[in-house]
Design goal:
mainly alpha; 3 helices
Length: 74
């Protein structure tokens, strides 16, 4: 499948966001002994980030809706 236009740009953007999100410097920011709802902060960050990436992939994979042209009757 060949990706063109916005889909290609969206795919590259989501991939870059994923790489930045799981990079060690950003993971170290959330690697603290704090608990949120009895879960470690790193756990919440990783699963929340993973869910966000799935949402972005779903939005990017959606097909564009074709809008039928309006008939101009004068």
């Amino acid at each position: 499948m060949q990706r063109t236009g916005r889909k290609k740009e969206w795919t590259i953007l989501v991939f870059c966001l994923f790489l930045i999100g799981v990079s060690p410097p950003l993971l170290y920011v959330f690697d603290k002994p704090e608990l949120v709802f009895d879960f470690p902060l790193a756990f919440i960050y990783l699963y929340g980030f993973w869910a966000l990436m799935i949402l972005f992939i779903a939005v990017g994979a959606r097909r564009g809706m074709k809008i039928p042209p309006l008939d101009k009757t004068d």
